[in-house]
């Protein structure tokens, strides 16, 4: 069905007219087959005999997303169904001070490596990119032969690192979108939990993707099974390159990029450069993808803040290299100029105190 045209102001002040369309949904669930044949030995997978219903999960990291997903699992399936993976120092602090989600205490169980534990059926990585190497080692005792791994981390490289550490057969592709969780002390606040896009990383993982989707559904976590996850990861990267960096540089929350002005123009320009780099790599990002994210941003709490803005306020190192750093590097490799991301990179490095 043709949608009503939507106007979007371009960074140069011109107005572009185009049809707003949401990202196409994938309603069909992945079949348990490979190359059209039912099989118990799935190339690239763990073998049908290793597949199982997912009943327990470990969430690596108790930041905004880790707390939000951990609470959803615990409330829906019981608090024994989820463990939070962290280091001993943080675990002691969380046990002492408590962890809240929208003001409600979360009676999490913590795994800090000091006690033996059975492997989890699913491990969800929700840490900053800079903490991934340590997080993988902390979570390693919970990864068994049957464990499925998901990452809700930013960027397009965490799954590769997980596959190198634990084996490609364990790792599905996943990206989180549409949530507005923000950490305030020991309390995570959110009005939208968004949804997860998940799918196979390689042929033969269809049954694992189905099992993970079933678990998410029972846990009350909205999800969508997809067979075009590389494109979707780039869609999410494009959003982060825009909204994370613009809110950081202009020192604003989501409300600051919803209204016409320089912050919104810079956000859109950074996304346009991401689209150009992706297109040079034969990844078909479109204007409709940008419109989708702009529309989704309208639903966020004006006072909420994406992760980069939160990091700068807390004096933490940001994930700049995953955003502008990635676009600048790939732009240079493919002959695509990225002046907006070049400028954002320099400005945020200065704000970090790294320059």
Structure class: alpha/beta
The count of β-strands is: 16
Total discrete domains: 2
Helix residue percentage: 25-40%
Q: Tell me about the biggest sheet? A: 5 strands, parallel
Poorly predicted runs of 5 or more residues: 1-44
Count of DSSP-assigned helices:
12
Order of helices and strands: EEEEEHEHEEEEHEHEEEEHEHHHHHHH
Under the CATH scheme, the architecture of the largest domain is 3-Layer(aba) Sandwich
Gyration radius, in Å: 20 Å
How far apart are the first and last residues' alpha carbons, in Å?
A: 50 Å
CATH C-level name of the largest domain = Alpha Beta
What do the pLDDT scores average to?
86
The largest sheet has its strands arranged as 9-6-5-10-11
| CATH superfamily descriptor of the largest domain | NAD(P)-binding Rossmann-like Domain
Shape: globular
User: Would you give the CATH topology of the largest domain?
Assistant: Rossmann fold
Question: In terms of topology, how is this protein built?
Answer:
Blueprint: E1 5-9, E2 15-19, E3 33-34, E4 37-38, E5 57-60, H1 64-77, E6 82-85, H2 88-97, E7 100-101, E8 104-105, E9 109-111, E10 120-125, H3 132-139, E11 143-151, H4 158-166, E12 173-179, E13 182-184, E14 187-189, E15 193-199, H5 206-218, E16 223-225, H6 229-249, H7 255-258, H8 262-280, H9 287-297, H10 307-313, H11 324-333, H12 339-352
Parallel strand pairs: 5-6, 5-10, 6-9, 7-14, 10-11, 15-16
Antiparallel strand pairs: 1-2, 3-4, 7-8, 12-15, 13-14
């Amino acid at each position: 069905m043709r949608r009503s045209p939507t106007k979007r102001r371009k960074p140069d002040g011109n107005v572009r007219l185009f049809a707003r369309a949401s990202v196409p949904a994938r309603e069909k669930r992945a079949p348990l087959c490979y190359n059209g044949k039912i099989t118990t030995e799935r190339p690239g997978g763990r073998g049908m005999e290793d597949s199982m219903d997912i009943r327990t999960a470990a969430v690596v990291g108790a930041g905004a997303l880790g707390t939000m997903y951990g609470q959803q699992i615990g409330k829906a399936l019981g608090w024994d169904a989820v463990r939070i993976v962290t280091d001993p120092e943080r675990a002691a602090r969380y046990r002492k001070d408590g962890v809240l989600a929208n003001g409600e205490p979360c009676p999490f169980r913590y795994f800090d490596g000091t006690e033996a534990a059975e492997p989890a059926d699913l491990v969800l990585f929700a840490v900053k990119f800079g903490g991934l190497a340590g997080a993988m080692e902390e979570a390693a005792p919970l990864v068994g032969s049957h464990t499925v791994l998901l990452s809700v981390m930013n960027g397009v490289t965490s799954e590769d690192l997980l596959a190198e550490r634990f084996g490609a057969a364990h790792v599905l592709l996943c990206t989180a979108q549409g949530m507005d969780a923000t950490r305030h002390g020991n309390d995570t606040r959110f009005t939208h939990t968004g949804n997860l896009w998940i799918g196979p990383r390689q042929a033969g993982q269809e049954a694992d993707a189905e099992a993970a989707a079933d678990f998410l559904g029972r846990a009350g976590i909205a999800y969508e099974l997809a067979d075009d996850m590389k494109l979707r990861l780039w869609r999410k990267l494009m959003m982060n390159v825009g909204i994370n960096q613009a809110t950081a540089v202009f020192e604003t929350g989501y409300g600051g990029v919803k209204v016409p002005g320089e912050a919104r123009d810079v956000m859109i320009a950074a996304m346009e450069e991401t689209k150009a780099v992706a297109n040079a790599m034969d990844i078909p990002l479109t204007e409709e993808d940008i419109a989708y994210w702009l529309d989704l941003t309208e639903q966020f709490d004006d006072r909420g803040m994406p992760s980069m803005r939160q990091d700068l306020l807390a004096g933490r190192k940001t994930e700049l290299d995953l955003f502008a750093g990635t676009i600048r590097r790939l732009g240079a490799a493919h002959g695509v100029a990225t002046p907006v991301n070049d400028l954002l990179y320099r400005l945020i490095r200065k704000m970090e105190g790294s320059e």
